[in-house]
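User: quick one - fold this with pyridoxal-5'-phosphate bound?
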Amino acid sequence: MATSLDDELMASLERLRREGLFKAEHPLASRQSAAVMVAQGASSRRLLNLCANNYLDLAADPRLAGAAHEALSEHGLGMASVRFICGTHALHQALEARLAAFLGQPDAVLFPSCFDANGGLFEALLDAGDAVISDQLNHASIIDGIRLCKADRHRYPSGDMHALAACLEAAAGARRKLVVTDGVFSMDGVIADLPAIRALCDTHGALLMVDDSHAVGVLGPDGSGTAAHHGGVRVDIVTGTLGKALGGAAGGYVASSHAVVGWLRQKARPYLFSNALPPALAASALCALDIVASEPGRRAALAANAARFRDELQARGFQLAGAGHPIVPVLIGDARKAAAFAQGLLESGLFAVAFSAPVVPPGEARIRTQMSSGLSAGDIDFAVDLFAWTGRRLGVIA
Ligand SMILES: *Cc1c(COP(=O)(O)O)cnc(C)c1O
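Assistant: Sure. Structure tokens for the protein plus pyridoxal-5'-phosphate:
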């Protein structure tokens, strides 16, 4: 049996390679940063990095590492317990209070990851007779979390407010109605229209949940995310990650009312049955939140880099998706051409990844780039030149 399973899987892996859908890993031999060393055989090469979620360049910041070091020395490696037995540390509670205040919510609860936050939330809050209404492009963890709950499921084409209204009408008889959207759609770099979604929720008596993983630390005057970006939209439940702008280590959270957070602590299965976040990661996240508040120049540099890269690529004839966010997807179309494009960039010194079906619609393969505050204007210009050179070589631009 074992042999036959292995044979089948080897054949399936081979098929993925043939179709250009195999995800190869490129191990870093350096810290995560605007430029990284990528191992190649016995040596390694320096690549400009346009594919990390390292928006504020905090992944290798010595202050975050220092805060984690101090907590490691003081409090040890880990809790060896889930939160509710003997795994709650004062640093967890300090970070939960800090996240709640930052996100403008009464309370917050940490999870091992945002995947787990989304995995536990729906089943805990919704039951048969309830309805959950989800944007079609929501993150996989939302899709999986919804699968675990007994509520009626409705799905609308991304950003289509008429379709959302129709879903809400179809769900009129439900006890609880929860509309859930990513704050920023990560394949497109599109910012959700929260004011319009909020208005529809209010009209139909629905709650609004936003997964702001790609926006916290990035969007809004204070960096608190998509709601602040839109001038302060009321959101009932926010989920997010510590694995992107806030240092890039690990951890997720739900911020909401005392009642919702209190209930999740009792009922959310990833909270109840998975080990507590290491206190050192709570310490580094607290440090990241200090920096988000005290160094708004990072957000300004990030936005300036995104604007420069977008403008320059567009001027050279590239077609881009999204707007107003440091995710800058460069549309290529054909999956194999996108893979060749990424490979060409890699060989010329630029780290960027091609995404194709099923992650994006067939025929809409793209190179998804992400800006960081750690990139210089010179880095951006180097990247633009390489894109233009590769684009002309592969016939993507004239
Ligand atoms: C990255 C991401 C997640 C997963 O976060 P982790 O903390 O890495 O599990 C969840 N939702 C969205 C929208 C994301 O972008």
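One thing worth noting: The CA atoms of residues 44 and 196 lie 48 Å apart.
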